[in-house]
Amino acid sequence: MCAPGSHGVATEARRPAVRLCLAADIERYSRFTNVEAARAQARFLEVLGQAQRHAGLTELDAEHSGDGRFVVLPPGLDESVVIPNLVVGLSIALRHLNTDLNAHARLRLRVAMDRGLLAPDVNGWVGNAAITVHRLLDSAPLRTALAEEPAVDFALIVADTLYRDVIAHGYPGLPPELFQETTIDIPAKHFAEQAWIYPGIHRALSPSRAPLRPLVPDYVEEGSY
What we know:
By secondary structure, the protein is of the alpha+beta class. It has 6 helices and 8 strands; from the N terminus they run αβαββαββααβαββ.
C-alpha cells in the first residue's frame, strides 16, 4: 500500500475525488504498558481488517498513529451497502475478540465517518472531510457516548450529510432510529457541525452476512491479556 502522494500511486488515484473516509482510535489507550500497547495495536488493525473484508473492500489508503487509523475509501462505492457492512463487520469482529479478553485488555473503539472531496498530497490527504472526521472522532459527545455505554464495544459518529444522504433512508443493517443527533462545537478549532452518534448496539446486526471467524490471536491465552 502506497502512502498518499508517493510516486507509487497511480495518476488516476491521485486526482481529487469525492470519497468516504473513516477514522478510528482505541479508548483509554494510555492505560496499556508498552507490551500491552503492541498487542492492542495488532488487535486493532485485525479488527479493522475484518470489518473492511466484511464490506467487500480490499486495498485502502490508510494512515496509522499507534492507537488510531485514518482510512480513505475508493471513489464510486455504493455507500448504502458499504457503510452498514463496515459497521456490522466491526461489531462482529469486536464481539469475537473481546469474548476472550479480560476487562483490562478489552478493546473499545471510537469511530467516525464523513465524505467529501479529497486528494492525496505529499504529507497526507487534503480536503475538509479529512479534517472533519478527526474533529468528530475527538469530540466530547462521542467520548461521552462510549463511556456511558460500558456494555458496547464501540461508538460511531457520522457527519450530518452522511446521515441524511444514506443512513436516514433505512438501508438494511443499520437502523436510523438508533442514531442520536448531537452538536459538535469546538470553538478553539472554529468548528461547529451537526452529527449523529450510534452507540454500537448489537441488535443492529444484519443476519444476511455470515459471521466472521473469531479473532483470537495465537499468543493470547483465554481470558488474559
